[in-house]
Design brief:
The complex is a heterotetramer of chains A (515), B (350), C (336) and D (319). Chain A is of the alpha/beta class and 515 residues long. Chain A contains 18 helices and 22 strands. In chain A, helix 14 packs parallel to helix 15. With 336 residues, chain C is of the alpha/beta class. The chains are: A alpha/beta (515), B mainly alpha (350), C alpha/beta (336), D mainly alpha (319).
């Protein structure tokens, strides 16, 4: 075996293997990260990137393999060991205590004390110094739940720096950011790099990889499928390594033939859970046979918008008109009966009942349809027959209808939801994040299904955080920012940059005027 | 149904283990205080099954326990912890006793259903308060039902010491009309086997069907498993929380009613006893399954019935409460038992 | 297996009974032993009989009221005499007793009409009457208190007898002693009893009579805390010893004597079915001998109590037992 | 009507009403503080009632066997700690349903105290009288009108109760341990990633709840009476739980709500003791309901809204 000098490397992970019940999450993974570089780990969802980093950070322990930090073998049994080894991690889902202040979150676990008491003054001072040094401005006394996502991410980064981290792991840091915020983040990262920090970036966005990293480790299905220098590769090659075949970057589709307007939203105002307005006087319309894509960064009112349209959230003011009827105050049930389908953003929260068998999940929302019940009793035989049919038609695996929802894979769960929503012949489909967390095969399937629905004349409102998805599916694109539509365009008349600017709060007119 | 599969079901094993472990712990306690557990358990068994009276008594005790067990279990199905069955028993019993005193002029086929409906409505309404507070005011049902238990007790005490008191100054209601009383199947000595057991058996079937076969059951379960998805599916959470509490309360109210129409013939003293709390034990042991609940109710009633005989053998009655506490504890922390089993399996493999 | 078990058990139980003159089973109500009230007192009576006659005795405590019938039945199956205590058991005894014509039942606080049941009732109001008079006579503040558990008939008899005693004192001595009455709502919450008593002390009462089961222990504790000049009055049993010098007296109800006499009558063969109301006359109720407080009570008051006692016994005074009777109660002219 | 005004005025000008409010609130404050400690770290503890009962029993047992009530206090708290540890063990290590585990512990406490009463003291119902913790006598301050009557002669438990509130408030809001408790109660995963041992912090919170609730129980037995009687806590644990919720999981709030409940009871006692009113015996039942109905109204959010720690009641299970 080749002898490698580990001391050049900030991080070496050697032969890391981690098994979860039924899954081999990491299969003898090797990772070499040089001191002072920005190193990307790319791969599809489920490739094992986060699992690998969680082991580096001590959140879970490897079944096999060794970890060397700066050439020295380290036992990292828990985050404390990681922090001691000067490793810090910014998680994809922020690890912030939302009711505590910024200061309290940052110093948590390493609190400065004065006698028996927690020294808030000193903590505040230290944080001010840190944020000045790295250009990460944030109000130390703000309560986390009141801060926007971008700010929260800064808190996360300061948190890591406060612990003196030399090695920073960032897990999908741009997922919740606008392109502009992303650029700011990259500036910060480069600045950190200049000050001698090593950065490991988990992502699946190849343009980001190309933009700021020095080297890349590609993972697929728990294994490393390639290690390359960024300068010596290109997105297509990386994509190939990621998915193991040529990827279809665009979806094949005919030109749309929109019909009459089926959904109109007028001056809609909706509040989010904490009582703050999340949708602020938004208007839009969807015609039969077209896909209207809503582009936006997470947390700009998309969730509230779709929930209001489907009846899951109260409307403060404004109108929702469906098939010419004002449905603003209709129950979700009534909307369903009128022909509104909904593929929800969070399939485990809204779309599926994990503890119900598949055949019960197939009738969710239609259980009192006369096809499945006589008003009191369920027609179990009929429900099962219907479910068998759908399982076959949508190729749900394993094809067992009495399996519990929780025992299906994410892709198959999504298939169940899509199948169910299509099966009731909706006229409008509100689709939110339909491919989040799915593998390429499933994504392709869902995309094709959506296109074929459109071609059958169904109106589709598509909300997605993936700009690529919006571009490849939509007939019209609307960009949303802080609960307002910033502009409308079509994929062939715009660029991702332009939409990105809208997503960051610039009005389309203003952008085009400036240009 | 595949019986073998049913018996090997993890939940069933957890219940059985919990009961077993608690009996073993109780046996150790008995040894510590110098009593022979074999003698005590033999007495327990004899007290529960040794005589005709014991068996009848056992069935009579199990009848309301099946109902409170179903009540708590149905609540659990909807994701609700109805710790207030006691209060619902009381209100149901009071109302049925009141109606029972009014229906003397009617034939039994009218008065009996009237009284039963009154009792169920009473329990249902009382529970629905907690349901409404949960669904529309966000108040946790554990707190509200505990509070409602106290309020119900005070109401009952007030009523049977005042406006609804039988002559003679004893805190009990007047006797209900003869036509509203359930007939006995048989009597051995002073112990009578009343037809109320059929009410409980019927309730098992009805609840089983509701849970497994009806849209109500579908909706209630959906709300219990995942309220967000239920709402997404057009199922009203608020309505179903109130409905589930009301059904749960109706069962508890029915338990109270059976005591009025089949045992005492009136509202009488601390009629609810510990039925409500026992219902929790029973629902947990029965794993919220109607048939499991029926079996668990018989288990608890056997322990309760037998414990009187155990007292005579010199073991304080409080031991039964300890046994129940341990069972609930172990079912709650079912991972303790799972861990023990896994450890054993590993040892066996090693 | 089952047959073996039954045989085994029956033999255990039989072994315990063979060769002894009499087996007595005592079935408590849900209050159970340790209530410092009629259950304890009844058990004391059973023990007296055990000591005197060498009978064998056992107790079954009822966990809930649904246990009454089964427990009475179980007891009647093996015993010669069954003692049942507490008026909540009335219906149950009425059901069980006729099934066991050869077993004698002794009931306390309620009566059942059956050829094998001897029932003992108590005129609690008569004992409380004397206690009330004594309290009024001893009060320095002109206010006395009453703390009840839950307003059930025996407790109410104590209350109205007590209030009648105070009224008597006022009328005969031209005084105006007031009574403060309160209920704590529970028989087993001594802390609540103590708080209620303290409230009454603060409103000027200096002697408080508690007819509140275990809650009444709080009253005694409160008197002790409040220091000299404050007294509690005990109930049911002689509770004077619980805080010597602070319990003025106890309004007693000799459940023990009743039970003992009942058992004795069975042994003597003089058992007679029917209802006996024990009164001052037969020392079934009364006030305690005041072992620790006698010296504090003026001889004149002692004398007056004696006179009143005789008047009650002779029927000259009919002590009220209910609120209604109290309202129409007229104190007859008494010469001390 | 006039006599009512007169009576109510009497109540509020009587120092005993205030003293009684303090003594009635003491067990509630202590137990509610227990609840605050446990739930701040994210573990629901409805077993307060049972822990109080064990504390009450241990207090008398220790005092009985050693003759020293302070040893009783020590034993009572030890019992409380043991109960809480059991709850912690099941709900933290084994991810048990915390409400059900709490229910089980209440039953266990009732069973154990009832059983031990018979086995150790030879009789059910109540124990013998034992020495209780002496009152704090403020000497000549007692003679100060009004205030002397309120504060002149209080049980040390009353001081302990208020001290526990100050202690709890400082610990939870002013120390690093408190910060960790709050973080664990709101987002255990986040705390975990910062190397905070979620389990240990939760064990600490739950076990502290055992300490305080047991003190509350011990007050009833060796603070007030010198005796243990069956089920002497009589629902106070549940009232304390309600006080904690009404007090928004905050020590000071919980204390205020406890004082409200204690005051309601004291008011009830004092009002019944007003001879001018001449209340019927049956009114007791109406008065008795008041604290429970207040609780219902408050938890229903008709008076202010309270908000539990985000992760309250949710077991934290790694991986």
């Amino acid at each position: 075996m080749e002898k490698v000098d580990y001391s050049k490397y900030a991080v070496v992970m050697k032969g890391i293997t981690k098994r979860f019940p039924g899954v081999l999450a990491n299969d003898h993974v090797d990772l070499f990260v040089k001191k002072g570089e920005i190193h990307a780990i790319v791969g599809e969802n489920g490739a094992g990137k986060t699992t690998l980093m969680s082991q580096l950070y001590g959140l879970i322990r490897p079944d096999e393999g060794k970890i060397y930090i700066n050439g020295v073998e380290k036992q990292i049994r828990n985050p404390n060991d990681a922090i001691e080894a000067k490793i810090g991690m910014v998680h994809q889902h922020f690890m912030l205590v939302d009711r505590l202040s910024v200061v309290e979150n940052i110093v948590l676990g390493q609190e400065p004390v004065k006698g028996p008491f927690f020294d808030l003054g000193r903590a505040r001072k230290e944080i001010r110094e840190l944020s000045k040094k790295f250009g990460l401005l944030v109000d130390p006394d703000a309560i986390i739940e009141d801060l926007p996502v971008g700010m929260q991410q800064r808190v996360e980064i300061i948190k890591v720096l406060y612990r003196g981290a030399e090695i920073l792991i960032l897990d999908e840091p741009t997922a919740v950011l606008t392109p502009q915020e992303t650029n700011e983040l990259f500036e910060i990262l480069k600045n950190l790099q200049k000050q001698g920090r090593t950065i490991i970036l988990i992502t699946h966005k190849l343009n980001e990889v190309m933009a700021i990293t020095e080297s890349v480790t590609v993972m697929r299905l728990g294994k490393v499928t390639g290690v390359v220098k960024t300068a010596e590769t290109n997105p297509n090659q990386l994509a190939n390594m990621m998915v193991g075949r040529e990827v279809l970057l665009t979806v094949e589709k005919e030109k749309a033939h929109p019909g009459e307007e089926i959904l109109q939203v007028k001056n809609l105002v909706v509040k989010e859970n904490r009582g703050i307005e999340a949708v602020k006087g938004l208007s839009l319309s969807v015609k039969k046979g077209e896909i209207v894509g809503i582009a936006g960064v997470a947390g700009n009112g998309q969730t509230e918008l779709t929930e209001a349209i489907t009846g899951l959230r109260r409307v403060e003011s404004g109108k929702i008109i469906f098939k010419g009827e004002d449905i603003t105050n209709y129950s979700p049930k009534r909307r369903r009966e009128m022909g509104m389908g909904h593929i929800p953003e969070d399939r485990l929260k809204h779309g599926l009942i994990k503890l119900f068998p598949v055949y019960y999940n197939f009738i969710l929302g239609e259980h009192d349809n006369s096809k499945f019940s006589d008003g009191i009793f369920l027609k179990i035989e009929e429900i099962k027959r219907f479910s068998e049919e759908l399982v076959k038609r949508f190729d749900v695996r394993p094809p067992k209808i009495d399996l519990l929802g929780m025992n299906l894979s994410g892709g198959n769960q999504q298939k169940v939801i899509v199948a169910r929503e299509i099966a009731f012949n909706p006229m409008l489909m509100v689709v939110s994040q339909p491919t989040r967390g799915l593998d390429v095969g499933a994504i392709e399937f869902i995309h094709k299904t959506l296109i074929s629905m459109r071609d059958k004349g169904i109106g589709i409102l598509l909300v997605s955080m993936e700009l690529e998805e919006i571009f490849s599916l939509s007939d019209r694109i609307l960009a949303i920012y802080e609960g307002r539509i910033m502009g409308e365009t079509t994929p062939d008349k715009t660029t991702p940059e332009e939409v990105g600017l809208m997503m960051a709060g610039h009005k389309l007119e203003d952008i085009r005027q400036e240009a | 149904m595949n019986i073998k599969k049913y018996l090997l079901n993890e939940k069933v094993i957890i219940s059985l283990f919990s009961v077993l472990i608690s009996l073993v712990i109780a046996a150790i306690v008995m040894i510590v205080i110098g009593k022979n557990p074999l003698v005590a358990y033999a007495a327990l068994f004899y007290g529960a099954f040794g005589t005709k009276e014991a068996i009848i008594d056992n069935i009579m005790k199990a009848s309301p326990l099946i109902l409170t067990g179903l009540a708590v279990g149905f609540g659990f199905r909807a994701g609700l912890f109805n710790i207030g069955a006691n209060g619902q028993v009381i209100i149901g019993a009071l109302l049925s006793a009141y109606v029972g005193t009014l229906v003397g002029a009617y034939p039994f086929f009218l008065s009996i259903p009237l009284v039963m409906i009154a009792g169920m409505l009473g329990g249902a309404a009382w529970a629905a308060i907690a349901g409404w507070l949960k669904a529309y005011r966000g108040a946790h049902e554990v707190i509200t039902t505990i509070m409602l238990n106290y309020v119900a007790t005070f109401i009952a005490n007030y009523v049977v010491n005042g406006p609804f008191q039988a002559p003679g100054g004893v805190p009990k209601s007047p006797s209900i009309a003869y036509s509203a009383q359930f007939p006995n199947i048989m009597s051995v000595g002073a112990t009578s086997l009343s037809t109320i057991i059929f009410v409980s058996l019927a309730a098992i079937v009805v609840i089983y069907v509701i849970i497994q076969r009806t849209t109500i059951g579908y909706e209630v379960k959906a709300v219990g498993f995942n309220p967000y998805a239920a709402e997404y599916g057009g199922i009203s959470i608020g309505k179903n929380v109130v409905l589930a509490m009301a059904i749960s309360g109706a069962l508890a109210g029915l338990a109270g009613t059976t005591q009025v129409v089949g045992v005492y013939g009136r509202y009488f003293g601390a009629l609810s006893g510990s039925m409500g709390f026992d219902g929790i034990t029973i629902a947990l042991i029965g794993q919220n399954d109607p048939i499991g609940i029926a079996l668990a109710a018989f288990l608890i009633s056997s322990i309760r019935t037998g414990s009187n005989q155990m007292q005579i053998a010199g073991v304080p009655k409080d031991l039964v409460v300890i046994i129940q506490g341990i069972i609930i504890f172990l079912v709650a922390a079912n991972r303790i038992i799972k861990t023990i089993r896994i450890r054993k399996r590993k040892e066996a493999e090693a | 297996m089952r047959k073996f078990l039954i045989a085994f058990l029956v033999s255990i139980l039989a072994l315990a009974t063979v060769g002894l003159p009499l087996t007595v089973f005592f079935v408590t109500d849900t209050g159970g032993l340790g209530d410092k009230s009629f259950n304890d007192s009844a058990w004391a009576g059973v023990q007296m009989a055990v000591n005197k006659y060498g009978i064998t005795a056992n107790v079954i405590q009822s966990y809930e009221q649904a246990d009454y019938v089964p427990n009475l039945t179980a007891a009647a199956q093996v015993a010669d005499v069954v003692v049942a205590v507490g008026f909540m058991m009335q219906d149950a005894v009425a059901k069980v007793a006729p099934q066991f014509p050869n077993v004698k039942f002794i009931t306390i606080d309620f009566s059942v009409d059956a050829p094998n049941v001897e029932s003992f009732l108590f005129a609690e109001n008569q004992g409380a009457y004397l206690a009330g008079y004594l309290a009024a006579a001893m009060s320095k503040t002109g206010k006395v208190g009453f703390v009840g558990g839950i307003p059930i008939p025996p407790v109410e008899r104590y209350q109205y007898g007590y209030e009648a005693g105070i009224q008597t004192y006022n009328v005969l001595n031209g005084a105006n002693v007031q009574v403060l009455s309160g209920y704590v709502g529970s028989f087993d919450d001594p802390a609540a009893g103590k708080a209620m008593t303290n409230s009454q002390f603060s409103e000027g009462a200096d002697i408080v009579f508690a007819a509140a089961g275990l809650s009444g222990l709080g009253t005694i504790e409160a008197a002790k805390d409040a220091g000299p000049g404050h007294f509690a009055i005990g109930v049911d049993q002689d509770q004077d010893y619980l805080a010597p010098g602070y319990v003025l007296t106890s309004a007693m109800k000799r459940v023990d004597v009743a039970v003992f006499d009942g058992i004795k009558s069975v042994i003597d063969g003089t058992f007679k079915a029917g209802t006996v109301t024990l009164t001052l006359k037969d020392n079934g109720v009364g006030i305690s001998p005041m072992t620790y407080t006698k010296q504090l009570v003026p001889a004149s008051v002692m004398h007056q109590l004696d006179v009143l006692k005789q008047a009650v016994i002779s029927g000259k005074i009919v002590v009220p037992a209910t609120e209604k009777e109290l309202q129409s109660f007229q104190v007859p002219p008494i010469q001390f | 009507m006039n006599e009512w005004i007169q009576a109510i005025l009497n109540v509020f000008t009587n120092p005993t009403f205030y003293k009684s409010t303090l003594t009635q609130s003491t067990p509630l404050i202590l137990a509610a503080m227990g609840g605050v400690f446990s739930e701040t770290t994210g573990v629901t503890n409805i077993a307060l009632e049972g822990i109080m009962l064990m504390g009450a029993f241990g207090g008398v047992m220790g005092s009985y066997f050693t003759g020293n009530p302070w040893y009783g206090l020590a034993l009572g708290t030890f019992f409380g700690l043991a109960m809480a540890a059991l709850h912690a063990w099941a709900s933290i290590k084994y991810g048990a349903d915390q409400i059900i585990s709490g229910t089980a512990l209440i039953l266990l406490a009732q069973g154990i105290t009832g059983f031990a009463l018979v086995e150790l003291f030879g009789q059910p119902g109540s124990t013998d009288l034992v020495r209780s913790i002496p009152l704090v006598d403020l000497g000549s301050f007692k003679d100060v009108p009004f205030f002397g009557q309120i504060f002149g002669n209080l049980s040390p438990f009353v001081y302990m109760a208020f001290a526990s509130v100050i202690f709890g408030w400082i610990l939870i809001y002013k120390t690093k341990l408190g910060l960790r408790m709050r973080s664990v109660g709101n987002n255990p995963e986040a705390a975990d990633t910062l190397g905070i041992n979620v389990y240990n912090v939760r064990y600490f919170g739950v076990i502290m709840s055992g300490l305080f609730a047991a003190l509350g129980g011990a007050y009833l037995s060796i603070g007030e009476l010198g005796q243990f009687t069956t089920n002497m806590t009589n629902g106070r644990g549940f009232i304390a739980l309600a006080a904690m919720i009404i007090g928004n999981w905050n020590p000071v709030g919980a204390m205020s709500a406890s004082l409200l409940f204690g005051g309601a009871t004291a008011f009830n006692n004092q009002l019944q003791s007003q001879s001018v009113l001449n209340l019927s015996t049956n009114t007791q039942y109406i008065f008795g309901m008041i604290p429970y109905i207040i609780t219902l109204i408050v938890v229903a959010g008709f008076i202010g809204k309270s908000r539990a720690p985000s992760a309250d009641g949710i077991p934290y299970i790694k991986e």
